[in-house]
Amino acid sequence: MTGICIIGAGSSGVTVAKALRDKGLTFDIFEKGSDIGGMWRYENDNGQSSCYASLHIDTSRPNLGYSDFPIDPSLPDFLSHAQFLRHLEAYADANGIRERVTFRTRVDEVTPDGARWRVTLSTGEVRSYAHVIIANGHLSDPRMPGFPGQFDGEVIHSHHYRTAAPYEGKRVLVVGLGNSAVDIAVDIARRAEHVTVSTRRSAWIMPKYLMGVPIDQWTGFMVRRLRLPVTWSRRIMSRLIRLGVGDQRRFGVPRPEHPMWREHATLSQELLPYIGHGYIDVKPDVAELRGNKVAFADGTEAAYDAIIYATGYRISFPFLATSLFDPSTEAGRLYRRMVPPAHPGLIFAGLVQPIGPTIPLVEIQGKWIASLLSGAFSLPDRKEMEREIAEHLDHKRRTYLASDRYALEVDFRLYSSQMRSDARL
Ligand SMILES: Cc1cc2nc3c(=O)[nH]c(=O)nc-3n(C[C@H](O)[C@H](O)[C@H](O)COP(=O)(O)OP(=O)(O)OC[C@H]3O[C@@H](n4cnc5c(N)ncnc54)[C@H](O)[C@@H]3O)c2cc1C
Ligand SMILES: NC(=O)c1ccc[n+]([C@@H]2O[C@H](COP(=O)([O-])OP(=O)(O)OC[C@H]3O[C@@H](n4cnc5c(N)ncnc54)[C@H](OP(=O)(O)O)[C@@H]3O)[C@@H](O)[C@H]2O)c1
């Protein structure tokens, strides 16, 4: 019997498992689906993947690979979901991870048992662990808005969107202006009769390429080569983007009240040109649903056949009682974004939303966790953990917008340097 349990074999679970293996630690890893890959496995039989057929990763290839397992340079700048899955599978197999996963086995309950944790599996088996690493993903439980009124057409959340085919010749409203919304609006635009995107706060639309170079490589150059602080580099980027893309108000996309560097980037090379071609228009927030029509905050009204809510995700842990850990208040209050001070035997992996790529950041989390569990360093006492959390929340308040959407936001460079310093990586 091992002392460590990992829940989930998506990119986070696989990455942490590899780091534990590198330190010679043994662990059990349970995956409710029949294979690894989580959200990157299109139509995953775990029923949890938010992947759509046209999805391409928005981090460019050189910034996406693992430190000891780079992505094949013959692949394109922005990998498709299938290409990324193949890369993850190759990484897992090169490190002997897939054979360690117990598939088709869901963790149904995690409860405290003295200083240990009792883990109940869907097979009915109960096991005891000193540490439970939770890597169940946080982008699969749809967050639905509560607009007044009723809509009579078809309604889905972006989590269930797969292809444009069902929207052929239809009038479609996409609610939200995050990355799911812009990807889906653009995907549907050429086949639908018309697409409207509705946004309450608007967003700065960043291109995927600037002067032929992937946008994240510009930021990487400023932060890593020129060693500029992240906020400076983001301010410079916002100027460059305005020069390269122009004033988005010309396309009917309002300029947000907040500066570009305060938000999670919305990336799309096609959105503004598609608005320019008349495929897509932009409306403010939905005021009311009126049968087959939708009224907007500017007093206009239009008829639609379908609404796609691309309104983000709720963080949920169905196997943890909310009396033990309430995600709505506690998911953003973790020591080093991983450890709840009240329950240091639980460790959350991948529960972050970085400005920058998630997957390489979780590689560093994995090394931090492996160093911690192999005794290379210890957690501070509860008071110090609370102090670190307060400092993080203060930095987050000063940096990002006050919205549920930013509960897990972290700055890649600052956060990775904190983990590296703790674990002497
Ligand atoms: C549409 C979309 C696009 C994205 N694009 C990017 C991008 O371009 N770049 C980027 O860095 N990030 C992107 N992300 C974020 C992405 O989710 C993370 O990068 C990362 O891959 C998530 O991996 P994960 O392992 O944490 O979660 P998941 O991939 O969701 O995997 C979680 C795994 O846990 C399993 N599981 C859940 N509950 C249980 C249970 N009770 N018992 C057993 N197993 C369980 C699931 O079956 C699943 O396999 C995107 C997210 C979305 C939704
Ligand atoms: N190609 C890619 O790589 C890709 C594609 C899709 C998603 N992703 C990633 O996956 C994660 C989730 O993205 P997401 O776009 O699904 O969700 P998201 O980033 O949380 O965006 C949700 C959008 O919906 C809006 N919204 C939320 N609640 C609303 C309400 N009640 N009324 C009106 N608008 C509302 C938000 O507006 P406010 O800003 O006003 O809150 C925001 O515009 C992100 O990290 C994203 O980068 C990546």
Automatic annotation (TrEMBL):
One protein family per Pfam: FMO-like
Alphabetical UniProt keywords: FAD, Flavoprotein, Monooxygenase, NADP, Oxidoreductase
E.C. number(s) listed in UniProt: 1.14.13.148
Molecular functions per Gene Ontology: flavin adenine dinucleotide binding; N,N-dimethylaniline monooxygenase activity; NADP binding; trimethylamine monooxygenase activity
Gene3D superfamilies per the UniProt record, alphabetical: FAD/NAD(P)-binding domain
Keyword flag Flavoprotein: yes
Signal peptide bounds: none
Domain of life: Bacteria
Family as reported in the entry's similarity comment: Belongs to the FMO family.
Protein name, UniProt field: Trimethylamine monooxygenase
Source organism of this protein record: Seohaeicola zhoushanensis
